[in-house]
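Quick note —
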Amino acid sequence: MSPFKNKTSRGDKSVHEAATLSRRAALAMAVAATGRVAQAAPASDAALLGIIRRTGQQATAFMAGDTRWAGLIRLDDDFTLMQPFGGSASHGFDDSPEHLAELARFFRNGGGTLEVEKSYVSGDLIVLVMIERQHGEVGGLPDQNWSLRVTQVYRRHGSDWRLAHRHADPLVRKISLEQAAALARAE
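Predicted structure written out below.
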């Protein structure tokens, strides 16, 4: 079932409104980072800022091999993941202690920062389009840049927001047509 079916919306926001929200969110984050108290944001802005903050913390903890990342953002029951290593989408998530420990051994000694390129808030959905600038030891390889282009879709459940979809790829730097063709041929 599509995560967009049977959801109500307060209407589509124009591109201008979405861009204004992103600027407003960025300004609020900058003010918060300086330690000054900002004026209370409307509920949708507060939810967006909280999700951005927790998403950044989650990405950093994940690359460090810190299993606390799993408690920062709750995954929806029908969560889909399009992994940066390619392949078909996975559905659901195994949050058993054994699987979390396995992930912690695979992703180690890393860190990073989150750059939100765009955010959209509409009704019961929040979408983040971002760059995760990160590094770490992955799969036993030495520490290197593992930055990703990421789109994440969050769905509201009462007062809670859950991650419904994540799509990540390592194409942060532009590649040539020939390189893209080689990837498409699995070379």
